[in-house]
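Example 4.3 (complexes with small molecules)
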Amino acid sequence: MKPEEVERFTCVFPGSSLKFVVFNIFPGSELQRMGKGQGILFVISAPSGAGKTTLLGKVMKQAAGLSFSVSHTTRPPRSNEQDGKDYHFVSREAFQKMIEGEEFIEWAEVLGNRYGTARCNFQKLHSQEIDILLDIDTQGARKIKEKTESAVFIFVLPPSPEALRERLLRRGLDSSETIERRLANAWREMKEAVWYDYVIVNEEVEEAVEQLKAIILVERSRKHRTSILQEKLKQWEGSHGENHS
Ligand code: 5GP
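Answer. The structure with guanosine-5'-monophosphate bound is encoded below.
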């Protein structure tokens, strides 16, 4: 099934404006939301090479009402990446201007590059009944945790240090020096996993996909997140309530 375009909107930043397209609503697919309610914010972190991108790509194709927040970064695009889809690739100067204009809900420096979640993009999505998936590092996740109690924090772990090194080597994107930095950073990040709500060990990607879908389903079913109980009670009240009270 192809992603359906839901909405286009433009965010105006000082000196520039960016067009956003909300995709990834899959009507009729599994994991539909029940009832009405404010969108849920799912924050996912993982050390680089833990397989998070593949995992998220698969889940995005299967979960209805879930939108991916496209971050801004000063990192140059990789050969398989598309501007506006994977990231908004911007210069360090443009990023700095956005920091000064308080355009980010959070931002962080990871291995020499800057990454940030644009406030405008985020608010626009959050005000609708769309759940948002933020793929951000642990520094950014901490900032979100300080701002909102209601976000759901999920940490994706690689099965072992050896498996992570192997994956980073196989990916062929980094020099051996960068791989060592990524491994050291992975260890730093993994120690942060203790305060996340859920942990997924990505040994078999299909199992990890099922686990992440289960988390989404469970969080969507929580009573305080959905109006479904009120709707059902009203429905029952209308047809039976008076006769059985
Ligand atoms: P990569 O360069 O491998 O795409 O991403 C490096 C790290 O930056 C990953 O841990 C990713 O989750 C994180 N990252 C991506 N976007 C953001 C963002 O908007 N904010 C923060 N804090 N981290 C991000």
